[in-house]
Write a structure and sequence with these properties.
With about 110 residues, the chain is α+β, with helices and mostly antiparallel strands. It has 2 helices and 6 strands, in the order E-H-E-E-E-E-H-E. A 4-stranded antiparallel sheet has the order 2-5-1-6, covered by helices on one side. The chain has a two-stranded antiparallel ribbon with strand order 3-4. The protein is elongated and about 60 Å long.
């Protein structure tokens, strides 16, 4: 089992969600987050150009069985790239081992709980 965490642009959320549903990935958790990386956005505030420290992003977390890791990652990659080619600020995907998953309602454990 793996936990896939993707940080993407806010405007790409609907495309990513639709791509995941097409790939038969229907259980996701979405959070609004802020951060910064290489992306720099200049904004005009009271006549002065400023560069905000933190840029709003979307964090998607998906617990999957090992067989679905590549399917999930490919769906996110395809949908989250700006204009299909990608650009700075499109985000990142992290894959981490998931030691255990327990469904609270039934007490199921492991891959069946996902």
């Amino acid at each position: 089992m793996k936990l896939i965490t993707a940080i993407i642009r806010e405007v790409q959320l609907d495309k990513v969600r639709e791509a995941l549903i097409e790939a038969d990935i229907k259980r996701i958790t979405v959070s609004r987050v802020s951060g910064h990386g290489q992306q720099r956005i200049e904004e005009m505030y009271r006549g002065q150009i400023i560069v905000p420290d933190l840029i709003p992003k979307i964090r998607i977390e998906i617990g999957v069985n090992d067989a679905f890791v590549d399917i999930t990652v490919n769906a996110i990659l395809k949908a989250a790239r700006t204009n299909g080619a990608g650009s700075v600020g499109d985000g990142k995907i992290f894959i981490t081992p998931l030691e255990e998953c327990i469904r609270i309602r039934t007490g199921e454990r492991g891959g069946t709980a996902i």
